């Protein structure tokens, strides 16, 4: 594996894969760019391919958020950075409602490796928060508004906040914990409405509006958020 730094894009991984027959590029949900090349190809081939795609990458990269000292993580945690001249490696730990990332004194908290550690522990905390909170909140809303569902699971989804299958199985994105409470309830009620209407036609919005008056007004607010950290 070779790491290449591209201005305005950042570090890009070039990885050799014996199963690859051509050069491929991916951008994951954290805006990490990776180029995969056949094992027989030189790394320079990956670099040339990467340079030829710079403008496309810039147009399609999500803006990377920088996690800072004191940031709230979901509803029940805050993130803190601790530079320490005595340590040589980056570590993280959870202490009650506090998430601590300790890093060497010579590293800034904005550097990629420190941010990666902070993002990892933050996502772990969000997952636990969601598992402990969302199923119960979904059940309360279902009981209050007369919905029924077969099951609920919490996991990381790439683009959606939630989903509901034809078998009334609801899946919720743990990044919901980053939303304001009213938008969390909007998403939960949206999926509950799908237990009665598996579409977005007039019937769906009629049922939805009965549970959440003027439900469409929340949709624009939700578009200003994205399921990543």
What does this structure look like?
- This protein folds into three domains: 2-60, no CATH class; 72-125, no CATH class; 131-222, Metalloproteases ("zincins"), catalytic domain (Zincin-like, 2-Layer Sandwich).
- It is built from six helices and eleven strands.
- It has helices at 43-52, 54-60, 112-145, 181-193, 202-211, 216-222; strands spanning 2-6, 10-17, 24-27, 33-38, 72-73, 77-84, 91-95, 98-104, 151-155, 162-164, 169-173.
- A hairpin with a 3-residue loop joins strand 1 and strand 2 (10-17).
- Helix 3 (112-145) packs across helix 4.
- The longest helix is centred in the middle third of the chain and has 34 residues, at 112-145.
């Amino acid at each position: 594996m070779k790491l290449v730094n591209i201005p305005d894009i950042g570090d890009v991984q070039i990885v050799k894969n014996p199963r690859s027959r051509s050069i491929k590029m991916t951008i994951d949900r954290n805006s990490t760019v990776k180029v995969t090349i056949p094992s027989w190809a030189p790394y320079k081939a990956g670099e040339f391919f990467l340079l030829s795609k710079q403008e496309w990458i810039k147009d399609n990269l999500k803006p990377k958020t920088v996690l800072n000292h004191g940031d709230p993580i979901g509803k029940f945690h805050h993130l803190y950075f601790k530079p320490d001249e005595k340590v040589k490696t980056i570590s993280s730990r959870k202490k009650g409602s506090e998430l601590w990332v300790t890093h060497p004194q010579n590293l800034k908290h904005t550097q990629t490796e420190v941010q990666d550690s902070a993002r990892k522990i933050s996502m772990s905390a969000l997952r636990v928060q969601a598992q402990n909170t969302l199923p119960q909140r979904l059940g309360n809303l279902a009981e209050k508004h007369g919905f029924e569902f077969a099951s609920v699971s919490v996991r990381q989804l790439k683009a959606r906040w939630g989903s509901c299958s034809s078998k009334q199985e609801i899946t919720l994105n743990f990044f919901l914990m980053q939303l304001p409470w009213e938008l969390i309830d909007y998403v939960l009620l949206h999926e509950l409405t799908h237990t009665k209407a598996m579409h977005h036609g007039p019937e769906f919005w009629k049922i939805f509006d009965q549970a959440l008056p003027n439900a469409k007004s929340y949709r624009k607010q939700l578009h200003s958020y994205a399921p990543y950290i």
